Amino acid sequence: MTSTATRPRGARARAAIAAKTLRTDRWWFAPLITVIGLSAWVAYATVRVFQHDNYWVDAYHYLTPFYSPCVTDRCVEAASHFGRFLPGWWIIPDAALTLPFLLLFRLTCYYYRKAYYRSFWLSPPACAVPDGHKEYGGETRFPLLGQNLHRYFFYAAAIISLINTWDAILAFHSPKGFGFGLGNIILVLNVVMLWAYTISCHSCRHIIGGRLKHFSKHPVRYKAWTFVSALNVRHMQLAWITLGTLALADFYIMALAAGWFSDLRFIN
Ligand code: FES
Predict the structure, then answer these.
(1) Distance 19 CA to ligand 1 centre (A)
(2) I want to staple 190 with a disulfide (CB 3.0 to 4.6 A). Which of 144, 162, 173, 249 is the partner?
């Protein structure tokens, strides 16, 4: 039985039921699919980040988001829009300036927290299914106390989305000047989805519309808050969609850079 010391305030002790859970539906499916999906994505991203190759298509100025901005002295000069000031050691990602913040932004995201608490920590794996741990401390102690820093990682993520947007604009390039191909569609799609995910953040919603007593006195902020709130409802979907668009953009550019196939060009 849960002790009063570890039970959330106001919660009652669990009824004395011998069965682990009375649920008969496939409650384990969501945690399982989350573990598979997140593990596969992290494995792919880790391999790509430390590959240090096939991240730039010189003819069309395509740069994969996994290497943006490219800041080590190993980076191709044309792909280094912010300089090459870090040493090109194998252990240092070429986008070392941004990747840690992106990782922390996702790691502390309200949706991802729910996802990995349930699936990796089984805390709890689903509603009406017991916690996989004897104690429950919530996010009141180190290291989970750090989840409160999410609002600051939001600001970093917004700046990084601006950088990705700049990359997508620069990619409208061809050896003849302006150019447009399938790679552009993929990069723009990725950037639009990244903005949708970033703006739909719960912290963003609070920054835009929080601490106001009267919405009627702040019509612009109210409009913005209404827009963000509509996106916020889809935050979980956007979290997964952006994992997909990031992987797609990276894979497509890797394939072009490796010469597996050519870009489908519409103009130049
Ligand atoms: S809550 Fe998910 S990104 Fe902020």
Answers:
(1) 36
(2) 249
**Mean pLDDT on 52-57:** 98
Nearest Cα neighbor of 255 from 28, 62, 38, 20 is 62
The residue nearest atom 2 of ligand 1, judged by CA position, is: 109
* Ranges of each domain in the chain: 31-267
Cα 223 to chain centroid, rounded: 26
Closest ligand 1 atom to residue 111 Cα is 2
| pLDDT attached to residue 28 | 96
Rounded to an integer, the average pLDDT of 144-169 is 97
* pLDDT number for residue 68: 97
Regarding the beta carbon of 109 and ligand 1, being less than 6 Å apart is answered: yes
Rounded distance, CA 163 to CA 69, Å? Answer: 7
Atom of ligand 1 nearest to the CA of 204: 4
Ligand 1 proximity of 110 Cβ (cutoff 6 Å): yes
Kindly tell me if the per-residue pLDDT of 66 is higher than 70: yes
Q: Which pLDDT value is given to residue 8?
A: 58
- The minimum-distance atom of ligand 1 relative to the CA of 203 is 4
Please give the distance of CA 238 from its chain centroid, rounded to a whole number: 9
Residue 10, pLDDT > 60, answer no
Q: Label the pairing between strands 56-57 and 180-181.
A: unpaired
Q: How far is the CA of 256 from the centre of ligand 1 (A)?
A: 32
How many angstroms separate the CA atoms of 230 and 21, rounded?
A: 35
Per-residue model confidence (pLDDT) at position 109: 98
What's the CA dihedral at 215, 220, 222, 223 to 10 degrees?
150
